[in-house]
Amino acid sequence: xxKYGVVAVTAVLVFLACSMPAYAADGYGWGFxxxxxxxxxxxxxxxxxxxxxxxxxxxxxxxxxxxxxxxxGYEEGYTDDILDVLGKHQVPAAFFVTGHYVQDKxxxxxxxxxxxxxxxxxxxxxxxxxxxxxxxxxxxxxDLEEEVADITDQKSITYMRPPRGMFNEETLGWAQELxxxxxxxxxxxxxxxxxxxxxxxxxxxxxxxxxHPGAIILLHTVSSDNAKALDKTITELKEQGYxxxxxxxxxxxxxxxxxxxxx
Length: 263
Description:
InterPro entries: Glyco_hydro/deAcase_b/a-brl (IPR011330), NODB_dom (IPR002509), Polysacc_deacetylase_ArnD (IPR050248), Spore_PdaA (IPR014235). The chain is of the alpha/beta class. It has helices spanning 2-12, 46-52, 79-89, 99-104, 106-114, 134-151, 169-177, 200-210, 224-239, 247-254, and strands at 22-23, 28-29, 65-72, 93-97, 118-121, 159-160, 166-167, 181-182, 215-220, 243-244. It is globular and about 45 Å long. Mean pLDDT is 89; it is low at 1-25 and 258-263.
């Protein structure tokens, strides 16, 4: 099972190696040119697709907000440390978990929920949703949600991240119909290769070079670099005036009615 987890997690960000969005026979692989000017990356035609189906990859309000998200396909022993740092700084995060992770590390999933973090749906078996039926996609999401509800007080899941970063208009529509908000990302780097970690400064520098107002940051908890860099990263971003918020705050704010001025 661990070998499967390594392959699955590796596949999630393979498209980020390309500077432009990647195309597959039945879908798109989430990707974009990395931001190097502290602005939200341009994702081209993807933007309209996400808008049409209520999906997110960044907060476009212009506010200096940051949203930390982690993908959890398997465990390398760093998630406790990451949760300790988040607790120290009172920073919320979202953890997108798979069925393997929930079965293998239920105590960590429970700790995430108990400490006020969001548990997101990364599917049960990590399939490419663009090559399965709507019924199969629904089962993948429902089975994961049931596993999480069995061990935590979070009885429903609102947010999902498509396995392998694969999507198309059909899967975006299916997710919306099933009551999920899809969460992509605007800041990421190759952090999942556990045998090629480069030290905490590599992770820190990657985040600082790409950071921008409204960033949804994707990190993997299998990275020792991330675990070691997180404390300094949060401290520095706060000093720069960034606020760390939860996905709930992003989505609720986005759906508030426009203020009415005058009488």
